[in-house]
Amino acid sequence: MNLRHAGAAFVDRHFHALTHRNYRYMWLGQCVSLIGTWMQNIGQSWLVLTLTGSPFLLGLVGAFQFTPILLFSLFAGVIVDKFPKKNILIVTQSISMLLAFTLAILVFTDTVRYSYILILALLLGLNNTFDMPTRQAFNIEIVGKEDLMNAIALNSTTFNMARIIGPSIGAVMMAWLGAGWCFLLNGISFIAVIYGITRIQAAPYVRQKKSNENMWNEIKDGLRYISRDPLLSETLLLVTVVGTLAFNFNVLIPVFTKNVLHMGETTYGTLMSCLGIGSFIGALTMSLRSKKGPRLTLSIIASLVVSGCLVLNGLSSSVLLCGFALAMTGFFNIMFSTNSNSNLQMNAKEEYRARVMSVYALVFAGSTPIGNLLAGYIADRFGANGAFLTCGILSAVLSLVIILKYKYRSGKLNQAHA
Length: 418
Known about the structure:
By secondary structure, the chain is mainly α. It has helices at 2-14, 21-52, 55-80, 85-108, 114-143, 148-176, 180-199, 215-227, 230-245, 249-260, 265-288, 296-315, 319-347, 353-364, 368-417. This is MFS transporter.
């Protein structure tokens, strides 16, 4: 009995978001679904590399998947606020399930082609354009502002626990049964999260449209709001840099495994799991410190350390060193993204939150096509090591430029008020 009370007290102190019934439904569904998502991620990357043998064409799949976010994310942010987010999520998660089943059928019937994978990646990207800002903005409706950072950190913990488990299971599935089973199990896993969402009972926030507003004016109003707030704008610029240059593992790790280490699926799964272990520890760390709230300083430090970790990845030439470097990269990547996400949601006004988070989705995930193509091109020309080094150095330089710019701007404002 004492043990039970001690466990409840620990959860209440460190994982308070789990005390919300609605959040538990969402979280438990994601625990299952995200394992399937990571199985599909590594299965798709390995399948494309096997079909084409080209790092650039692998990067092109990532570009197709994230280009819709780049093009339509701002529009999605305006639309999301006008409908109950629970209903949007049921639709988007159902579409993701159907796309996974489609890819599984193509593989099982031996009719899969590179062009089909591109089309499915594009459709998934279009679906995610609405899913991402909806999920981000839905958090505050089911946990409230006080437990928001804890919920975001727990989401990251779940995501990265799945990043450890999913690639490990996926690698075994590919080696024994083929990539099609990764896609089939991913499709089945969506049943859990869809069921969880249907059980949520929350009062939805639906923003009423003003009579003189149209979509373009609402987008411009949101962008003006962000540009006038130094905390939001500096955070989003740092997210742009890190999102573009430091999240290209779906392109670089399979290329590194195949062309540098000359290893197969099992090593690929192991390296992805190392990235996941570091990310999981980072997410758990953020959960435990969530009561302290987000800090811009933490995003700044993490962005620079991530850049250094990418350089370390580029200098590695063994499974052991690369695994360590990827674990460190994962740890600081999650510290950066969790802190930045929380900063934006907690400091944005309610009527602007979905639009702010649509910009976050735009610069974090929408920048991925550029990053994937850049990483794929450099890996084609100079190898995976060269791509890691280039991305790390560019990330460090651009982050420093943003940090110094806002430090100078802050100094000028302080002088003006003195």
